[in-house]
Q: What sequence folds into this?
């Protein structure tokens, strides 16, 4: 069965550990905690857990009073901010709206080749950096607040739009294929296995009817090794470069 929900993912992992042939001594609440832990680690380091997106926000009077913008809690990283303004002064010739209009009227067919176009774009980018620079921003996903270090009363007005270029978490509730990710399944199996071993450690050495001896310590140690290998794998093979999140 291909997991497409939280419960199907849990059932898959329990079967991978031997259920229902073997009783897996892990409580339902512990299983839910391990799913949350696996998803949190997956979303923190796996490139398939996020998608680049542009998010539009209309500035309100509350934003100006607070001097920060409250953003969606699924926005993991912000690379840059593109302000949308209504003014037509030359100071704003490099904002997103001006650039969109410029590209709409720029007819490449009249240029003969792309060399001039590329040179013009590089020149405008250099002018933008020299004359305007870029807004300094601060963002932390646990606060859900985007701080733009500028003169709010002067540079940002109520009704202006701010475009955020960042990376959003892929919501498993909307895109159920997340639950079938190969690395996530292996990692959750290892987490549940470690929890199982941890639960059995207190009965270590106890002999059951038929001469069976519980060995929770071995299960715990094996799971720890598997978790360490999987965490190294995701950081080496699946984590995006740091510069992907830096504008």
A:
């Amino acid at each position: 069965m291909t997991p497409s929900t939280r419960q199907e993912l849990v059932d898959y992992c329990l079967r991978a550990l031997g259920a229902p042939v073997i009783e897996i001594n892990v409580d339902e609440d512990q299983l839910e905690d391990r799913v949350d832990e696996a998803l949190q680690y997956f979303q923190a380091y796996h490139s398939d857990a996020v998608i680049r997106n542009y998010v539009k926000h209309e500035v309100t009077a509350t934003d100006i009073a607070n001097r920060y913008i409250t953003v969606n809690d699924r926005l993991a990283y912000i690379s840059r901010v593109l302000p949308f303004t209504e003014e037509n002064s030359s100071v704003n010739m490099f904002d997103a709206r001006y650039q969109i209009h410029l590209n709409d009227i720029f007819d490449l067919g009249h240029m003969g080749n792309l060399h001039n176009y590329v040179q013009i774009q590089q020149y405008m980018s250099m002018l933008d950096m020299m004359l305007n620079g870029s807004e300094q921003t601060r963002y932390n996903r646990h606060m859900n607040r985007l701080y733009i270090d500028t003169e709010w009363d002067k540079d940002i007005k109520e009704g202006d739009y701010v475009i955020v270029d960042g990376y959003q978490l892929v919501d498993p509730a909307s895109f159920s294929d997340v639950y079938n990710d190969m690395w996530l399944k292996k990692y959750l199996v290892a987490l549940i296995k470690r929890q199982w071993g941890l639960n059995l450690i207190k009965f270590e050495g106890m002999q059951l009817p038929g001469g069976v001896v519980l060995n929770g310590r071995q299960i715990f140690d094996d799971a720890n090794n598997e978790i360490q290998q999987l965490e190294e794998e995701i950081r080496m093979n699946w984590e995006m470069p740091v510069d992907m999140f830096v504008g």
Notes: The CA atoms of residues 207 and 213 lie 4 Å apart.
